[in-house]
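Postdoc handover notes: sequence design on the structure in folder B. Input tokens:
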């Protein structure tokens, strides 16, 4: 019996990216290594520049939900209709329990449609909470300051 090739491409990819240096962690003076957890249509690929990096491109448009979840698309649509990313400070993941509680459980909760602030509460150790959307793209901040 021969190997059969998979004909269907995955609809979404859930994954993570570790950023220890460079544009994957450099926003607003941040120097801490980050773990980005995401649900995206495309697989992570550094060669094609399909990875989490700052500043965020404005196309496709994104929104920052509760200062902690970056979303492309509309949360009101089905889970396969939008993409998201949240970030955790890598050094806060000091045990397998921390990984379970701070990465796996929140990702599963988001997939299940749990409210963002319940899945990613303020007291979640290591959670990156952005001051506002302009932190993600300085060009946006500059245009806000000009107007």
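Designed sequence:
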């Amino acid at each position: 019996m021969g190997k059969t090739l998979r004909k269907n491409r995955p609809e979404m990819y859930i994954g993570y990216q570790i950023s220890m240096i460079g544009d994957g962690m450099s926003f607003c003076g941040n120097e801490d290594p980050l773990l980005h957890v995401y649900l995206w249509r495309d697989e992570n690929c550094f060669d094609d520049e399909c990875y989490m990096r700052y500043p965020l491109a404005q196309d496709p448009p994104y929104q920052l939900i509760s200062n902690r979840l970056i979303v492309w698309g509309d949360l009101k649509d089905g889970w396969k209709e939008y993409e998201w990313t949240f970030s955790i400070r890598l050094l806060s993941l000091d045990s397998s329990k921390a990984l379970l509680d701070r990465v796996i459980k929140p990702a599963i909760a988001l997939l299940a449609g749990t409210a963002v602030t319940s899945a990613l509460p303020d007291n979640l150790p290591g959670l990156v909470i952005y001051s506002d959307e302009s932190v993600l793209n300085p060009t946006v901040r500059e245009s806000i300051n000009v107007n």
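Context for whoever picks this up: The radius of gyration is 16 Å. Don't rerun without checking with the PI first.
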